[in-house]
Amino acid sequence: MENIKRVYLDHSATTPVDPRVLKKMLPYFGEVFGNANSQHSFGQATNIAVDEARRKVADVFNVKPNEIYFTSGGTEADNWALKGLGKSNKGRTEIITSKIEHDAILKTAKQLQEQGISVKYLSVDEYGQVSPDELKKMISDKTALVSVMLANNEVGTIQPIKELASIAKAHGALFHTDAVQAVGSIDVKPKELGVDMMSVSGHKFYGPKGVGILYVRGGVKLENRLITGGFQERTMRGGTTNVPLVVGFAESLFLAVNEMGKNSAKIQELRDYFVKEVESKISHVILNGHRENRLPQNTNFSFEFIEGEGLLFGLDMFGIACSSGSACSSGSLEPSHVLLAMGFSHERAHGSIRFSLGKHTTKSEIDYTVNSLHKVCKKLRDLSPLYAQYNASQQNDLHRASAKRMV
Amino acid sequence: MYTSKVIDEFKNPRNVGEMEDATALGVVGGAECGDIMNMYLKIENDVIVDASFLTYGCAAAIATSSVATDMIKGKTIEEALKVTNKQVIEHLGGLPAQKIHCSVMAEESIKAAIDDYRANKAKAQ
Question: What is the pLDDT of residue B92?
Answer without folding.
Answer: 97
